[in-house]
Amino acid sequence: MVTIETPRSPRSRKGAKWEKWGWLYMRASGVVLLVLIFGHLFINLFQNGIQAITFAFVAGKWADPFWKIWDGAMLWLALIHGTNGMRTIANDYTVRLGMRKFLNVTLWVVCFALIILGTLVITTFDPCSDPSVNQIADISIHCGK
Amino acid sequence: MAKLPAGTLYRGKVGMWSWVLHRITGVAIFFFLLVHTLDTALVRVSPEAYDAVINTYKTPIIGLGELGLVAAILFHGLNGIRVILIDFWRKGAKYQNVMFWIVVVLAALLFIGFAPRHLAHVFHWNV
Questions:
Q1: Which pLDDT belongs to residue B7?
Q2: Closest to B37 (Cβ–Cβ): which among A52, A75, A127?
Q3: Residue ranges of chain A with pLDDT lower than 50?
Q4: Which chain B residue shows the shortest CA-CA distance from A114?
Q5: Which position among A113, B5, B81, B87 has the lowest Cβ density within 10 Å, counted as fewest Cβ atoms?
Q6: pLDDT (tens digit, 9 = 90+) per residue, A43-85?
Q7: Closest of B108, B126, B104, B109 to residue B117, by C-alpha
Q8: Does B121 touch chain A (CB under 8 A)?
Q9: Is residue B7 part of a domain?
Q10: What domain count does chain A have?
Q11: Which of A40, A64, A59, A77 lies closest to A121 in space, CA to CA?
């Protein structure tokens, strides 16, 4: 006779609902990220080129709030998108529940820390407050000194 | 010799390999994103610290790595659109195979447009 183990508890609907929002987030953020990242690569790597990327280049870009919002949106959307993708992979390949928990917690802690760090960097960035910037001609003209 | 399992609609076909590629490129992009957030954060430390680290992105080996990164992003982004179409478009599942090849061709075309210019930047070719 075949005995089938009785499930201890039914699956919660709450978890399933959360997964559905995660699934939807991957698609919604993916479309936006396609525009943001392709645009980022086109302007930084294609038009200007890797050799042109300097502190002065970033300061020039972030003098315009448009690019601060662009980069801030990229930061938030991409980190959450990437972390959720890594969570899916961790859930697929881990066998032990403890390891799965550890990886998931680590992923979200790193994601949270980098979002806070990046957001603070973008919102508090002020090239003119740095004394050494006065030697960089193409920035100091923006500083009114 | 053990008999190979019979093929399915999924295993060993476009459906499986696009999924594998989507995962591998996704993981690669994720780890770059972690590093890229940290290196960009150096603008808040000092101009010298930022420029010193960003200069390593301009070396030949990392410059070639950036080609791989862009290739991964092109595939992942365009295949993501294919995944969305499979999920939401009525005929998405029917055309998933041909859509994969459209993704590959589009990514290849964009890559061919990008690569020579990027290599010229990395190796200081005056084009």
A1: 61
A2: A75
A3: 145
A4: B37
A5: B5
A6: 999 999 999 999 999 999 999 999 999 999 999 999 999 999 9
A7: B126
A8: yes
A9: no
A10: 1
A11: A59
Distance CA A37, CA A78 (A): 9
Side chain identity at B41, as an amino acid letter? A
CA distance A114 to B63: 25
Measured between CA atoms, the residue of chain A closest to residue B52 is A54
- Domain for residue B4, yes or no? no
Containing domain of residue A73, as a range? 20-140
- Whether residue B13 is contained in a domain is answered as no
Burial B7-31 (b: 16+ CB within 10 A, else e): eeeeeeeebeebeebbeebbebbbe
CA angle B11, B13, B16 (to 5 degrees): 65
Q: Which domain holds residue B96?
A: 22-122
Nearest to B33 among A30, A82, A89 (CB): A82
Please report, in tens digits, the pLDDT of each residue of chain B (127 residues total): 566 666 666 777 899 999 999 999 999 999 999 999 999 999 999 999 999 999 999 999 999 999 999 999 999 999 999 999 999 999 999 999 999 999 999 999 999 999 999 999 999 997 6
CATH label of the domain that carries residue A64: 1.20.1300.10
